[in-house]
Amino acid sequence: MYLAQKQMYSQHPSYTNGSSQNVKKMIENFSYGLHQQIGKGFSSKVYKGQNEVTGETVAIKVIDKALLKTPLHHALLQSEIEALSTLDSQYIMKLYKVFQTQNNTYLITEFCENGDLGSKLTKIGKFPEQQAQNVIFGLVKAYKLLKQNGIIHRDIKPANVLLSGCGTPKLADFGFATTPNSPPLLPNVNVGSPLYMSPQALKNNKYSDKSDIWAIGVSAFEIIFGQVPWQATSEKELGQKMVSVPLTFPSSTKVSQECKEFIKRCLVVNEQERASIDELEKHPWIRGPELAFQVNKQPALLKQKTLEQPKEGKENSAKKLPGDSIHRSGKKHTTQITKPLGQQSKQTETSSFEIKSNTSNIEYTIMSQINFCKYLFRVANLIESTNLFRSELIRDKLLFFAIKNIMIKMYKLKDIDSNSLDIQGFDAYKTSSQFQQTQITIQQHFTKYQSYFKNIWSMLQSNKNELSIDKKFDAVFDENFTEFESFYIIFNSVLRQAIKELQKEIDKKLGSDDLSKSLPVDMEKDVVLLDYLVTYFQLSQLTLETFNKPYEFAQKSKIEHIAEGSPVRLTYGHFIEIKNKMSDLEV
Question: Where is there biased composition of kind Basic and acidic residues (predicted)?
Fold first, then answer.
């Protein structure tokens, strides 16, 4: 669940010097300028803002409490926050945080640099069918999550669909949404935009999940044909036409029969007979094998100059990296990661994820990311099982970084269909049977790791207040899985501290001078963890060095050899080697 963290303030946000229009406002670690307004509503204004810690561009919705004059207005705002806090999908605008001051409510959300779909339609008129499929596919996926959580949007339309930098559609503006916790009268209040409202909502103020299906159908019609299905001069006339004038498709635009059937099933007047989410998901128009489109690839019509994004952490990424010097036992190994000592390679058994010498560069690149996640999962389990850290907060921070790192990588892999790793020659690879198997593998791992993340995330909420005292950590203590260099920069500081603390605690408990003697069984897992953390430190540094260069990461890390292997008994001599490696790396 994408949970927004609410924080309360008794004072106004701070201001920096400047003219009345160029003044910069701060709310916690987020800033925005009055000249950066990008939207406006009944009681709110939306600004382009920035997370001053990570450099990430965000959208900041400022709701003026003085304009919320009735209990209904307050209930709608509460439902909007609850809905966005509950939903986590690449096809729904993400809510990062909520702040309350005496005068305003601030919603910090994902920033979509390509604007909204309604504005695009105003400029270009309509989309080709294949590009419309992209959008409707995303809306169906978003709607499914709403349905699963008992949420009704009640205002789905092109103007409320935002477009990310790569053209991914994201359902937004939940200002009229209802949730299972909404007040009883709220679902029957007349809201929404008449052109997209179902006959039941328009005539009788009756909303259901099928109301959103109708709106998806109207939106699909408008995206493809450049107009809505029924036009009228009044709401009464519009309502009459919906139930009496048969749906017809303009002959000037040629579309597939599957497209027409999809829209027809959404626009059935009788709610009981209208398409369900299960039917839409299985409809051949958005899942047929003949579709030659990539779900998240930027449509050609959206390829235009976009707002420039800030470059994260460049001033900090010049630290000592694996390419500069990674040593072991006094020998220099350029841009190579040293394998943990507490494991040996499997020579006779081939893992399904092991990279073979004859595997293509593309497969090699993708599988290196999967193997990295496998390694991190092993690290996370070791962190969970240790009690040797003096501070529980260090352990919790370390555990969170490891599992969030997994999810950052897995969300990128989950979007592999749109070439999220920016691999050359990927279009040809997509047609291969190997790609289909790779997608299955990714989904299996994603499901496993997502479940693990949710469990750990839930567990860590009990220490949220203590963890959030560290403002740098708090900046990444969320469920935003976009990959930024700043994540690794902040993480490396915590990891370095954890490694030093763990090494000191182990030193206190070990006293043997016999380097060949095996470690005590009760200490072995802690030494293994130390070994793994040092290797993780190298991998994290290498990630910064090769940021957005996954093939180079695969080549330099040789992660397939690190991820595979079986445990071996560690000796005191191994522990000395680990400490030497720490010294060489200047941990």
Answer: 305-327
Binding residues: 61
Q: What is the Cα–Cα distance from 10 to 102, expressed in whole angstroms?
A: 6
Beta strands 57-64 and 30-40, pairing class: unpaired
Give the model confidence (pLDDT) of 469-503 as tens digits: 888 888 889 999 988 888 888 888 899 889 988 88
Q: How far apart are CA 585 and CA 538, in angstroms?
A: 8
Buried-state track 160-186, b at ≥16 Cβ within 10 A, e below 16: bbbbbebbbbbbbbbbbbbbeebeeeb
Q: Which two tokens stand for residue 179?
A: 């949730």
Residues labelled as active-site residues:
155
Read off the pLDDT of each residue in 431-452 and give the average, rounded to a whole number.
89
* C-alpha distances in Å from residue 572, one per residue of 113, 305, 343, 583: 55, 59, 15, 17
DSSP state of 463: G
Helix axes 485-509, 392-414, angle to 10 degrees: 140
Per-residue tokens: 181:
């916790």
CATH of domain 5-110: 3.30.200.20
240: tokens are 């009459």
Q: Which of 406, 444, 425 is nearest to 543 (CA)?
A: 406
Rounded to whole angstroms, how far apart are CA atoms 341 and 519? 13
**Rounded distance between C-alpha atoms, residue 23 and residue 169, angstroms:** 32
Strand 343-344 relative to strand 57-64: parallel, antiparallel, unpaired? unpaired
- Per the CB < 8 A criterion, the answer to whether 369 and 441 are in contact is no
SS3 track for 123-177 = HHCCCCHHHHHHHHHHHHHHHHHHHHCCCECCCCCHHHEEECCCCCEEECCCCCC
Q: Which residue, 93, 41, 25, 102, is CA-closest to 66?
A: 102
CA–CA separation, 502 vs 522, rounded Å? 15
What dihedral do alpha carbons 230, 233, 238, 241 form, nearest 10°?
-70
Upper half-sphere CA count for residue 40 (Cβ side, 13 Å):
4
* CATH no., domain 117-302: 1.10.510.10
- Report the DSSP beta bridge partners of residue 104: 64
Closest CA to 132 of 144, 120, 142: 120
Query: Structural domain boundaries of the chain?
Result: 5-110, 117-302, 325-358+368-424+444-585
284-314 as b/e: b if 16+ CB within 10 A: ebbeeeebebbbbbbbeebeeeeeeeeebbe
The average pLDDT across 535-560 equals 89
Tokens of 274: 């209208």
CA torsion 389→393→395→398, rounded to 10°?
-140
Cβ 363 vs Cβ 434: under 8 Å? yes
To the question of pTM greater than 0.70 for the whole model, the response is no
The CA radius of gyration of the chain, in Å to the nearest whole number, is 27
Which residues make up each annotated binding site for ATP? 61
* More confident position, 311 or 69: 69
| Amino acid type, 5 | Q
Percent of the chain surpassing pLDDT 90: 41
> Measured between alpha carbons, how far is 515 from 410 in angstroms, rounded to an integer?
40
